[in-house]
């Protein structure tokens, strides 16, 4: 299935949760001079225009990043990535995870991005073309299995599927188990929606039971529109960087006040 278009949802509250913690992790990793590998299984188009018809139709960015950007100081890596993106692409642009990573990674780091949707892949490749990122029009899970463990071994993978395929909830713990066995030093970050149907619950509980020391962080917010089933955002991180729990707790105070 290739019907999902993140342009309708870019900059929403789930993106604020996911992307701010991603930026924090990448900033932490780049404190050391050692090179690292960064992989994404579902990259999207990298740069989004929040003034276009898709974003305006849902209004999710207005309730998301437009409202929450003051939560982050100008020095926060998430805010820095947004500022850099808007300087390059206009004041209504928003960086997806590849653009955030591109802003924070260094010349010695490796970045591999998978995107299967043809239109999204073309936009991704165009957005990343000035940079040394490798864009793969390929199933992201297959790419990850082929590349892990990466070289350099130090680094992380972001797993951010659309969950169009409901079988992803059952399959993802198996994918992560295989990656973790092959790459026990790698940071494995999985995003998932928090749903009124609780479809996510068994997967998240299974993961939590399997990885001592992992971070499971969920935030709640009002549905984007009446009857919408997503009421929160979850991030499950194997091998979370030191201090990430405190950064996640800081976000809680803001989301709780919405």
The tally of beta strands, per DSSP, is 9
From N to C, what is the helix and strand string?
HEEHHHHEHEHEHEHEHEEH
The gyration radius over C-alpha positions equals 17 Å
For the sheet with most strands, the description reads:
7 strands, mixed
Report mean pLDDT, rounded to a whole number: 96
Share in β-strands: 15-25%
Q: Number of helical segments?
A: 11
Instruction: Please give the alpha-carbon distance between the first and last residues.
Output: 34 Å
Sum up the overall morphology in one term. Answer: globular
Q: What percent of residues adopt helix (DSSP H or I)?
A: 40-55%
> Which structural category fits the helices and strands?
alpha/beta
Q: Order of strands across the widest beta sheet?
A: 5-4-1-6-7-9-8
Outline the low-pLDDT stretches: none
How would you sum up this structure, described in words?
It contains 11 helices and 9 strands. It is α/β, with parallel strands linked by helices and 258 residues long. Strands 5-4-1-6-7-9-8 form a 7-stranded mixed sheet, sandwiched between helices. Strands 2-3 form a two-stranded antiparallel ribbon. Strand 6, helix 9 and strand 7 (187-195) form a beta-alpha-beta unit. Helix 1 (13-29) packs across helix 5 (77-89) and helix 1 packs parallel to helix 6 (97-104). The longest helix has 17 residues, at 13-29. The relative contact order is 0.17. The model has no long low-confidence stretch (mean pLDDT 96).
């Amino acid at each position: 299935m290739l019907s999902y278009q993140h342009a309708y949802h870019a900059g929403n509250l789930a993106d604020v949760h996911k992307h701010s913690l991603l930026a924090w992790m990448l900033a932490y990793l780049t404190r050391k001079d050692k090179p690292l590998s960064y992989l994404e299984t579902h990259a999207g188009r990298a740069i989004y225009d929040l003034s276009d018809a898709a974003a305006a139709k849902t209004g999710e960015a207005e309730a998301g990043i437009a409202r929450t950007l003051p939560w982050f100081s100008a020095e926060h890596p998430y805010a820095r990535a947004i500022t850099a993106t808007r300087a390059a692409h206009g004041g209504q642009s928003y960086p997806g995870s590849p653009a955030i990573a591109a802003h924070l990674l260094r010349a010695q780091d490796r970045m591999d991005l998978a995107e299967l949707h043809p239109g999204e892949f073309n936009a991704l490749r165009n957005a990343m073309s000035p940079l040394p990122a490798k864009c793969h029009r390929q199933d992201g899970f297959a790419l990850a299995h082929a590349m892990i463990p990466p070289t350099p071994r130090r680094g992380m993978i972001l797993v951010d599927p659309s969950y169009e395929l409901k079988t992803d909830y059952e399959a993802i713990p198996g994918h992560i188990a295989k990656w973790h066995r092959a790459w026990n030093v790698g940071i494995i970050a999985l995003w998932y929606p928090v749903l009124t149907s609780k479809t996510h619950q068994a997967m998240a509980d299974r993961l939590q039971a399997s990885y001592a020391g992992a971070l499971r962080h969920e935030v709640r917010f009002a549905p984007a529109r009446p009857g919408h089933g997503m009421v929160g955002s979850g991030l499950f991180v194997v091998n979370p960087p030191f201090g990430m729990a405190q950064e996640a707790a800081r976000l809680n105070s803001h989301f709780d006040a919405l």
